[in-house]
Amino acid sequence: MIPLQIRVGGAFMALALVLIIQAVIAFINGGGVFTITLGSVFIWIGALLFGGFATMRRDQPASKKQVAALIVAVALILLSVFLPTIELGVMATYWLAMYAGVAVLCALILRRSAM
Fold it and tell me: 3-state DSSP call for residue 60?
């Protein structure tokens, strides 16, 4: 069984990666502003699920709960493409990078506490 700290740390790492990718894309598109939509929230939730349940040991077989969570994560990410782009909020792009930094810090602290 994988400790909870490792799973939550993996979720934070996946979220940090997604936030950095979104910040880079928003910056390249010429905007200093990132618009939070329902699709981006679904992508964040999908990344959290993927990061939390993708962690496994070599000697541990995949459980039904793990496979179901990964299917839900992929479904949320695919569903985010088809959702309308309703603006839920706006933030400066550098905040995404700062949130990603905090997520990495949380992941490292959680993973360190599991050792």
Answer: coil
d(CA 32, CA 83): 24
pTM for this model (two decimals) = 0.87
Q: What is the largest CA-CA distance in the chain?
A: 47
How many C-beta neighbours within 10 Å does residue 94 have?
Answer: 13
pLDDT values of the chain reduced to their tens digit, one per residue, 115 residues: 677 888 889 899 999 999 999 999 999 988 788 889 999 999 999 999 998 888 666 667 767 888 888 899 999 999 999 988 889 999 999 999 999 999 999 999 988 887 7
Q: What are phi and psi of 27, to 5 degrees?
A: -70, -40
CA 43, 86, 27, 13: dihedral to nearest 10 degrees? -20
Distances (CA, A) of 18 to 65, 69, 96: 23, 18, 9
